[in-house]
User: Which sequence fits this backbone?
């Protein structure tokens, strides 16, 4: 009997990377590999990397550097860098990390099992980078090995056709490609058959779904289609871009009870001058009008944003416009990033002229504003009865269970047993800016 081989994967960055790692693990399982959390026991070790900010990229590369000693002890182990940093740094990775044998870009992860076999057979390094000849791992062929038995990420779009001046993603993940609705629906049906009750559709600009597909379909149509899948009780989608949030999608959000009333739609800045230089394609006023329309048409909808502070040329006045936008919208949550120049992007040619200390200050001021807003919004939920999907024991207090509401709030409640994967109803009794606390009243 051949011994079961083991694969260890460390994932950095966004949900798309989490899903790619799950798909790699699923595909490798077909080839007889089991996932392990023990590096020492692994035959294949992969770092699924992120390049969005320099810091994220460097962290993955420096962690991969620590495997030098492991490979000296175990020359048969294969170490790979996959994902966005692989695509961005290409063969330079071999110079920086001589013990790495595999470099695979995000659109090529489907080739990993074949490349590993080739490395075993030849002892030679292998590289697979984006060349527009996809080796997508498609759900039709393989099943993700998911972290959660009841929640699933489903890829709806790979890549991005926009060219935000700060962003490296179009260079690492390539052109926007929508997966056909039949393939997505099949994958969702299979996930439901395995016990999944909540799916999250992923795409860099998920609301532009359908580009190039025949017959024509948009995200609204896809949501309507998936709404009919038995067993699925919640459907989420991330990330929305303000330019594509059109009426049929807003109608689907309003009309379909399974579609969660939560829209993650990054504003990035509240200053028109900065938005123009970022090439985001909208003004602050247009963003605000879209938020108003969403709230008018979809009662109870919650909106979240990303912001970049310290973009080239961002003045104190520009930043104050961002604060004003955040104050006016009152986001459910906001993810704030300090601008990090990325090679090859348009913004990298602009002077990175906001000093690090000032970036840090703006970051903190915006986070403080958001914390106050989240605190105020959460305190208004005290006294409400909310249905949540339980995710498992709370990280801070094992006597509590934690879950999420339709609008993505974290809710903690006391429970004597583990009820993960179940929908329960909770009466909210207290709140903090980060979470709601309540009493379990039924399921
Ligand atoms: N596709 C999404 C969108 O439309 O905004 C997000 C893509 S990116 C992976 C996630 C977030 O990282 C962005 O929304 C942005 O706020 C942040 N980000 C991207 N590039 C950055 C950079 N060079 N420096 C700092 N933050 C950055
Ligand atoms: Fe990046 Fe803008 Fe696309 S943030 S992923 S270029 S929408």
Assistant:
């Amino acid at each position: 009997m051949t011994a079961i081989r083991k694969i260890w994967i460390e994932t950095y960055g966004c949900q798309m990377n989490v899903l790619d790692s799950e798909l790699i693990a699923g595909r490798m399982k077909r080839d007889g590999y089991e996932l392990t959390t023990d590096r020492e026991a692994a035959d294949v070790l992969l770092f699924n990397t992120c390049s969005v900010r320099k810091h994220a990229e460097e962290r993955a590369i420096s962690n991969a550097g620590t495997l030098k000693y492991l490979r000296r002890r175990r020359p048969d182990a294969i170490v790979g860098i996959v994902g966005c940093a692989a695509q961005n740094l290409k063969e330079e990775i071999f110079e920086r990390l001589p013990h790495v044998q595999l470099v695979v870009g995000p659109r090529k992860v489907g080739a990993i099992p074949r490349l590993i076999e080739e490395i075993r057979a030849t002892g030679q390094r292998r590289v697979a980078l984006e060349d527009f000849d996809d080796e997508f791992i498609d759900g039709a062929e393989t099943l993700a090995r998911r972290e959660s038995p009841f929640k699933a990420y489903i890829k709806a779009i790979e890549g991005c056709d926009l060219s935000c001046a700060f962003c490296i993603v179009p260079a690492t993940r390539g052109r926007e490609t929508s997966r056909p609705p039949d393939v997505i629906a099949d994958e969702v049906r299979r996930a439901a058959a395995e016990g999944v009750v909540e799916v999250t559709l992923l795409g860099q600009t998920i609301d532009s779904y359908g580009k190039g597909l025949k017959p024509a379909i948009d995200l609204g149509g896809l949501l309507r289609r998936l709404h009919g899948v038995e067993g699925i009780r919640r459907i989420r989608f991330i990330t929305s871009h303000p330019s594509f949030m059109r009426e049929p999608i807003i109608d689907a959000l309003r009309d379909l009870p399974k579609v969660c009333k939560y829209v993650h739609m990054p504003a990035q800045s509240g200053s028109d001058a900065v938005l123009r230089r970022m090439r985001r394609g909208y003004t602050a006023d247009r963003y605000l009008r879209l938020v108003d329309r969403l709230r008018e048409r979809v009662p109870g909808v919650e909106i979240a944003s990303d912001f970049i502070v310290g973009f080239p040329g961002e003045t104190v006045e520009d930043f104050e416009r961002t604060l004003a936008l955040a104050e006016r919208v009152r986001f459910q949550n906001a993810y704030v990033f300090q601008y990090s120049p990325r090679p090859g992007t348009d913004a990298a040619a602009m002077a990175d002229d906001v000093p690090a200390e000032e970036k840090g200050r703006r970051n903190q001021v915006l986070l403080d504003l958001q914390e106050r807003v989240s605190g105020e919004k959460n305190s208004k939920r005290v006294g409400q009865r909310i249905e949540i999907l339980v995710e498992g024991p709370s990280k801070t207090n094992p006597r509590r269970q934690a879950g999420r509401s339709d609008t993505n709030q974290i809710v903690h409640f006391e429970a004597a047993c583990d009820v993960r994967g179940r929908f329960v109803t909770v009466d909210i009794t207290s709140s903090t800016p980060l979470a709601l606390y309540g009493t379990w009243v039924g399921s």
